[in-house]
Amino acid sequence: MSSVANSTLARRGTVLSVALLVVFLAAWQWGPGLLGIPPFIIPPLSMVYHEFLRMLAVSALMTHTGITAAEVIAGFVLGSLLGAFFGYILGMSPTAEFALSPYILALQIAPKVAFAPLFILWMGFTVYPKILVAILIVFFPVMVNVLSAIRTVDPDLINLARAFKATRAQIFWKIEFPASLPPLFAGLRIASTLAVVGVVVGELVGGNMGLGYLLSFGEGQANTAMVFVAILMLTLVGGIAYLAVILIEQRVLHYLPRRSFSAT
Amino acid sequence: MSDVVRLEYRNVTMRFMERSGKSLTAVEAVSLAVGDGEVVSLIGPSGCGKSTLLNIGSGLCAPSEGAAFVDGERVEGPNAHVAFMLQKDLLLPWRTVLENVMFGVEIQGIAPSERQRRARALLENLHLFEFAGHYPHQLSGGMRQRVALARTLAIDPSVLLLDEPFSAVDAQTRMVLQRELAQTLEREGKTALLITHDLLEAVTLSDRVLVMSRRPGRIIDEIRIDLPQRADPLARRQEPKVNDYIGRLMERLDIGAVEVAGGPP
Fold it and tell me: What is the DSSP code string of A196-230?
């Protein structure tokens, strides 16, 4: 595709996106009234906006958002590091993989969010159980991607390095590690959104901090607009995390042919 | 060409254990010697163990019996005297052309300034200099194979093992690459063992062609190619004797009815 055709596509796509947003916001503002849906089911846009301003002033919205964001970052970073570490270890040691795979599979099948109450029993109403749920949920996509990347490195590439008398460490740092980076980043993209899920579940289950807490508090008050604000802020946190991963990915994987900015 | 033997296989036999537990003989009692500066081609049916011989020569696997020698030294493992090049270019996508060419010398711990000097000289010779900063995905298949050739030559091996290096590129690019390889081998005085399916390639590029049998692979014929200008395979193609050689190779390989113009000698 030529760059001209590409830029035309980008311009058309942007116009369409903005138009869709306007239609969506308008439908949100006037749709419920026209269809006779009461505000406690779907509060109109303006009501949600006023609730947002109220929460900023009264409910320490930014503090709660900051706490949730910090938990997301901590859970994402620690979970990714652990996932990548185990991915590399298992990828390079078939014995370790053989021995550990049934347990890893079992842990992967178990619904991670179900651990949240357990972690709160262990660690109380602190930030730690939330971070732990995020770590657990982030761990798998990263580990699985790194593991399969290491195992699918072209054996001829390894042989080439061996023929040059490469040491095991050289094979890892010059071939296996760089070859694993594209799949690693694919895993990190998924992980960045899953980290938010893990943290919110933790906050919903117990505690009095974070957007998940505001979510359940709003629900208890039958304050639908508050629930909407919390959902929007959570989406914002997740979106920023996802965008951060993409920006780092584009710097690290600059050698790949340019792809369109796609959400995968 | 001197009498120095650069690459030698002495009575090499290779057996593999199949999953069923049966042993499979890939190569049987192969002995061959390649002299200094000589280019020898190895042809044979698929699965006759040609690539196995290459792996043994590069020290990536040890033969069941016999041994390979490079520069008179027994091959016990990978060593700096031998470099191989495959049908796949095996370029690393995260390295630029220049960095890919330096891959081998970097692993061997050669000083950065010397690495640069060698890689740049090779890129110059192979008409790749202006692409030094490009990434592999920006190159055509033929250019990628040339980068692979430069990487192979960068470690300055005394023997090159080439396993169907041009079978993945289109016919026209292949002719250009064959000529560049021939010129490079001539200029650098390198010794090469070339594995190929392409009879014309074997005849136009080599001093000698060895024919292998079906599995278990044995060497069943040796044909000395008595043609001028080994460095110019395109000119060699025009020689009438080329057809005679190809006819004889087809006969040895049992390819169809041998009714090639000129017929077998």
Answer: HHHHHHHHHHS-S-HHHHHHHHHHHTT-HHHHHHH
Of A159, A170, A256, the CB nearest to B60: A159
Closest to A224 measured CA to CA, from A46, A26, A42, A25: A42
Q: Do A163 and B93 touch (CB under 8 A)?
A: no
B235 to chain A, closest Cα gap in Å: 33
Chain A, window 134-163: residues with a beta carbon less than 8 angstroms from a chain B beta carbon: 154, 156-157, 159-163
pLDDT (0 to 100) of residue A134: 93
Looking at residue A258, its pLDDT comes to 67
Residue type at A117 in one-letter notation: P
* pLDDT tens digits for range A198-242: 999 999 988 888 899 999 999 898 889 999 999 999 999 999 999
User: What percent of chain B shows pLDDT beyond 70?
Assistant: 95
> Whole-angstrom Cα distance, residue B206 to residue B260?
21
> Looking at residue B102, what is its pLDDT?
93
Of B92, B94, B104, the CB nearest to A164: B104
Which of A156, A164, A175 has the CB atom closest to B88's CB atom?
A156
Collect all residues with Cβ–Cβ distance below 8 Å to B174 and sequence separation of at least 6. B166, B201
Res B235: pLDDT: 87
Within a 10 A sphere around the Cβ of A22, how many other Cβ atoms? 10
SS3 B1: coil
Q: DSSP state, B176?
A: H
Question: Residue A113 pLDDT more than 60?
Answer: yes
Residues in chain B: 265
A165 in reach of chain B (CB within 8 A): yes
Q: Provide the sign of the torsion angle of the four alpha carbons A99, A100, A101, A106, taken in this order.
A: positive
Global pTM reads: 0.82
For β-strands B191-195 and B159-163, DSSP reports them as parallel
Say whether pLDDT at B116 is over 60: yes
Cα A90 from chain centroid (whole Å):
24
Structure confidence by residue, pLDDT tens digits, B38-56: 999 999 887 778 888 888 9
Strand order in the sheet with B5-17: B23-35, B5-17, B65-70, B73-74
Q: Is A255 in Cβ contact with B84 (below 8 Å)? A: no
Q: What are phi and psi of B43, to 5 degrees?
A: -120, 160
Q: How far off is chain B from A163, nearest CA to CA, in Å?
A: 5
- Reduced to 3 states (helix: H, G, I; strand: E, B; else coil), residue A41 is coil
d(CA A188, CA B21): 43
Query: Is the pLDDT reported for residue A23 higher than 90?
Result: yes
Q: What is the band of A5 on the pLDDT scale with cuts at 50, 70, 90?
A: low
Q: Which two tokens stand for residue A242?
A: 């996802």
